[in-house]
What we know:
With 535 residues, this protein is mainly α.
Amino acid sequence: MDFEMVNVGLWSVFPPAFAIALALITKEVIFSLVLGVMSGTLIYGIASHTSILGVFYTTADLMINKVGDNGSMIVFLSLLGALVALVTRAGGSRAYGKWASRKLKTKRSASLVTGLLGILIFIDDYFNCLTVGTVMKPVTDRHKISREKLAWLIDSTAAPVCVIAPISSWSASVVSYYPTATGITGMQAFVQAIPINLYALLTIVMVFFISARKNGDFGPMLAAEKRAAEAESMHDADIAQNDDIAKLEASDKGTFLDLIIPVLMLVVFCILAMLHYGGLWDGSGKSVYDAFGDTDAGMALSLGGLCAIIVAFFMYVPRRLISFTDFFASITAGIKAMVPALVILTLAWTISGVCRDLLSTGDYVASLVRDSNMPVALIPAIMFLFACGLSFATGTSWGTFGILIPITIAVCDQVAPYLSITSLAAVMGGSVFGDHCSPISDSTILSSTGAGCRHIDHVATQIPYAVTVAGSCLVGYLIAGFSIKSLGFGGMVAVSLPVSLVMMLVLLLVLPKAAARRPAPPVGLKSATRPASGF
């Protein structure tokens, strides 16, 4: 069904803002998202003179459309849940945990390796979130690293790495939105923007800085880490999502290769499938980058997941790690474990559709940008803030790219061409920040899913860390806007990046000390010894 958008001004921002606020207050994400969606379709119904019954029709049609548009991603997530259950049932996760614990003897080494693995998987953030969680969860559990900390490590090395990796689904997205009549290609602009993409770079530095420190946590994350350290077992903190998998009886014959090989095959098959769907071998002469840019990521990931499960079948069943019947029972348990995440994702896609397809939220924000008459030197900082807000409200980085990148480049071309690359980097970084903090962000949902963490707990613990980085970046972009004309692009980077970095490191040294002097507030967090309801 095609929807006719309406212009409702400031009301277009209400549904996502209402859903986010309600989620943070009630700690019930599904309830909050449902009300957010319904408030949006009600506003749309009033503006378009639709009956009350029509409002429910609109809600159902929009949700069905979003499920259809993202069907391949739903299949991939279901297959990945099945693969996790199979690896657990075969004893691969337990054996890998024991093996890795012998190699990684401290919390510090486990955290650092988690961050390093997140950087290595830079092709796609969805794939990153779920793969790193699957591989590292047994290790971080043994060292009593909280699931909230694992979710932050995953989330902070997924989108931030993808948004500065020239060969990734994210670079293809940015390039596709970059205007063609600008004198340089979208890929050239993307590569030039890497050293001034402050949020991505500083977030990655923060991951390794906090991982290397013994007492570097603060805020709700500190409370989560204390509870994990005091818990008898990390399974005490497990969530309802993992109940079906946790109940599976693991084989005592599995080895760590029974986890490594299926996951490695998943990586290989997904990359090959991406290149296949991108047309690398169809005789058209495409490069590897062009193939990644033209691929259908959802279809490729689904095919890769299916192939990995086939590999698992021939690894486990002939060796009698799992019986034929238990193999398919484990697949069912794994898919059931993903249902809460799929429900939240569906609602997040729907509320994003309410903003984009019904209420013209992006057009409203774009008009604010165009009519703001901002001073030229403030353009990078202002675009960073706009990207933060829009991405937070809509829960989508890519949607923010599509709205703000053309506007940003057009504004800069007219008034300050020398700010184009810096402003592009500010939009990309701000989009990732909003994606990190928003409860309705798909990558945030998948990070909590990969870590086995309650979604709202991940949001509550990650926000203070993300805000710390964003505040430092804002100062950097203010310096960049005022210094680039006199120093040039290279000189501006040489000043802005170190200043932002030093400011962030100072905050990371001061905040944990301040937190140690008073109890960390358990914002949005449940007791680790009490089963959590919801996801």
